[in-house]
């Protein structure tokens, strides 16, 4: 479908290369949702995307390459950073997004597959860590606005507030196997806010 | 080494059965530390423990059975629940135990192997979840003492304080791949304490 040696980005955005990349990415996510990382194969992605297997091998190399590229695309994508008018609402909304994302029958299994794969697959781990770093950075605006409004002290470390807000949800989902729901999300958000207000995340 | 059909606990504690169980458990942990869950085999455990392979198969059934039994034993074992004299010190000590445990060249790889295995192996997940439930329960005394001393409000949910204290460490270790150290532990402990003091974990 493309000339040999063509790399992603060598063709204009929206062109044939971008379309192939998007088709392969959609197929990768669908395969992950259906089969998990252990069931992800270059053949399966080729078949589902309609892109020739040799093209997928040449440009993505392996299932790790497919997973990493899907995560790279996700890192750069817009998502609804909460903007409710106050820090309490924004953090609550952020925590609830984690709960609803993992409960969603489409996105939940894909996110779970990425995290499961990352614990034993270094290239996928690298892409996943970059994804979370991007999410922490994108969420920092919540803390910036809170400081401007006087809801948190100046010098509050934004990423630490975000981590503290979502960590209890990931801890339950991936470590202790305990359930998460809106009440759990709201409590995690309230804890992060109380700690931020108390000045736990300033200085250091 | 034992009669066919002998089950763990059927022989007096400290007797031959207990010794076999302990030898097999020590071998399981050593194999996990060396090779991870993917490298754990009944043969490897039999060889390392000196217990005959057919005995290991008969009594533990599989690598999942070996991992679950090692976790069961760990759940019931004493460990140094912090008692420093105040809630701030106890929570800081608890968070630091997580950091030092994962940094330890002997215990770190074993704990990591259990958590990695649990994300895709339901029997191991069940044993791991029971292990964490036991740890939360054992740590509850920290919150009980804090409430008695007036450092936290009455009715504070002990497990929620403990989860909030350790979650940011597990989030960094297993989700975002960010480093943990004493400063990260101390901040997580301070955040849990500030939230508890603010009454985030009461009622519900």
Automatic annotation (TrEMBL), chains A, B:
Gene3D superfamilies: Homeodomain-like (1.10.10.60), Tetracycline Repressor, domain 2 (1.10.357.10). Residues 18-78 form the HTH tetR-type domain. GO terms for molecular function: DNA-binding transcription factor activity; transcription cis-regulatory region binding. Residues 41-60 bind DNA. It comes from the Bacteria. Keywords: DNA-binding, Transcription, Transcription regulation. This is TetR family transcriptional regulator. It comes from Planobispora takensis. The lineage of its organism: Bacteria, Bacillati, Actinomycetota, Actinomycetes, Streptosporangiales.
């Amino acid at each position: 479908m493309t000339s040999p040696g063509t790399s992603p980005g060598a063709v204009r955005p929206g062109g044939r290369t971008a379309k192939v990349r998007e088709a392969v990415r959609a197929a990768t996510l669908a395969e992950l949702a259906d089969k998990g990382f252990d069931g992800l194969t270059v053949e399966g992605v080729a078949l589902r995307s309609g892109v020739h297997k040799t093209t997928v091998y040449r440009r993505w190399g392996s299932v790790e390459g497919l997973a990493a590229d899907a995560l790279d695309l996700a890192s750069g994508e817009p998502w609804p950073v909460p903007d409710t008018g106050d820090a309490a609402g924004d953090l609550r909304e952020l925590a609830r997004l984690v709960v609803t994302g993992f409960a969603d029958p489409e996105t939940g299994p894909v996110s779970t597959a990425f995290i499961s794969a990352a614990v034993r697959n270094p290239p996928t781990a690298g892409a996943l860590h970059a994804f979370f770093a991007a999410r922490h950075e994108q969420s920092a605006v919540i803390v910036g606005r809170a400081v401007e409004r006087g809801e948190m002290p100046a010098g509050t470390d934004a990423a630490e507030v975000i981590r503290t807000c979502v960590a209890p949800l990931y801890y339950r989902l991936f470590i202790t196997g305990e359930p998460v729901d809106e009440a759990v999300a709201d409590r995690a958000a309230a804890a992060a806010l109380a700690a931020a207000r108390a000045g736990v995340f300033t200085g250091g």
